[in-house]
Design a protein that fits this description.
Length: about 375
């Protein structure tokens, strides 16, 4: 697994900020770790690492204008910690197996369960981040495509293919804790197939269009947006679909509701910048973005391929963005296309200001972690 070189000397300001990586006394009020999971495809393993979340933040007392101007563009080199553990799927057709991982879920407010399945759907892992325990999952009803949509609702996990094929087999199902009949035995996790969104049954449906944005509304309704189709809602209480509107959500990928801000927060489409919108006021009309923040200023040539937003608590969030770069390189015998893959973790804070109750973002530190080229990755 590649690591960032880190051979250049840190700037004077960065050196002054290095001691701040120690965990403060207030750390107990928010999540301690950010988890990074990548596909080490050369040896067929998926190492899981945890990164100290406090390393992404600067204490408020040291956020001077000079420091904030420096942090606005600074991206430091980070060294990958040793893996906490690695997942190893079985081989398939004499090749390394492939795993797909879903959103964290679990009982109550503590969403600490991580589920993953292989490309056949027959092998599944269930890892508890809080208890550091690995278990198995029953066979999934239908194999999942790469990067499916996954959302926790209540104690359950809902998963649907990002490009649902026409017909009833769309790969939509829920992982729920099944209680044994007559109150005997131990509750266990089970997959349950769910009805497909109605538009996949339309003869004119084009499966080339994928679900571009998704979120949970009212605590129990899953909204998905597809270009050319509009936005549909799945009510998890009644297991039924309905159309919300012909418009699309203004996000790219997943957005989450933050009750402390009264807004849904995700990444903008286009731009992939941190943003917010009030979907509660948009149930009868196309929603608009209320705020868009520049959480990262990547250099030219960095192509963002994947984003994650990790809620740490106490107004703190981790913005995770995966990038590719491609450049012509020479090895003395000719030119070749060099491709690099890496993830940048950025600490940000959100808080209401005293002027018009404006929601303001403050960018803290950014660290780049190099990973194997062509790797898939997840951040939790």
């Amino acid at each position: 697994m590649g690591q960032a070189a880190g051979t250049t000397s840190p700037s004077p300001l960065r050196r002054r900020l290095l001691p701040l990586r120690r965990r403060s006394k207030k750390m107990s009020k928010w999540r301690r770790y950010v988890y990074l999971l990548v596909d080490h495809f050369r040896n067929g393993t998926y190492p899981l690492r945890r990164i100290d979340a406090s390393s992404l933040f600067v204490p408020r007392s040291r956020l001077t204008k000079t420091t904030m101007d420096f942090l606005a563009t600074d991206i430091a080199e980070g060294s990958l910690p040793r893996p906490l553990l690695s997942f190893s799927p079985p081989h398939f057709d004499l090749q390394n197996g492939i795993l797909e991982f879903f959103s964290l879920f679990g009982s109550g407010r503590s969403k600490s369960l991580l589920a993953g399945v292989d490309q056949t759907g027959s092998v599944g892992f269930l890892y508890d981040l809080a208890e550091n325990h690995v278990g198995s999952l029953p066979r999934i009803s239908e194999p999942k495509d790469c990067c499916p949509v996954s959302l926790p609702v209540g104690d359950a996990l809902y998963v649907i293919n990002r490009r649902p094929p026409p017909g009833c087999s769309c790969g939509f199902e829920a992982l729920t804790l099944a209680v044994p009949e007559r109150g005997t035995g131990v509750p266990d996790w089970r997959w349950h197939r769910l009805p497909p969104p109605p538009y996949v049954l339309d003869p004119d449906y084009n499966a080339a269009n994928c679900i571009d944005a998704y979120t949970v509304v009212d605590g129990s309704k899953i909204w998905t947006s597809t270009p050319g189709v509009g936005t549909y809602s799945f009510d998890t209480a009644t297991a039924s679909w309905s159309k919300v509107g012909s418009w699309e959500l203004p996000f790219r990928g997943r957005a989450d509701y933050f009750p402390e801000y009264g807004s849904w927060i995700g990444f903008s489409s286009p731009g992939n910048n941190l943003c917010s919108s009030d979907l509660a006021a948009s149930k009868t009309k196309s929603p608009v973005l209320r705020y868009v923040w520049m959480d990262l200023r990547p250099p030219p040539g960095w192509m963002c391929i994947k984003t994650y937003l990790v809620r740490l608590g106490g107004g703190k969030l981790c913005v995770a963005k995966f990038f590719h770069t491609m450049a012509d390189e020479s090895d003395g015998r000719g030119f070749y296309l060099k491709r690099e893959t890496f993830v940048v973790l950025t600490g940000v804070t959100l808080e209401h200001s005293g002027v018009g109750d404006e929601l303001r973002m403050t960018k803290h530190k950014s660290y780049r972690y190099d990973i194997e080229a062509f790797s898939n990755g997840w951040v939790f």
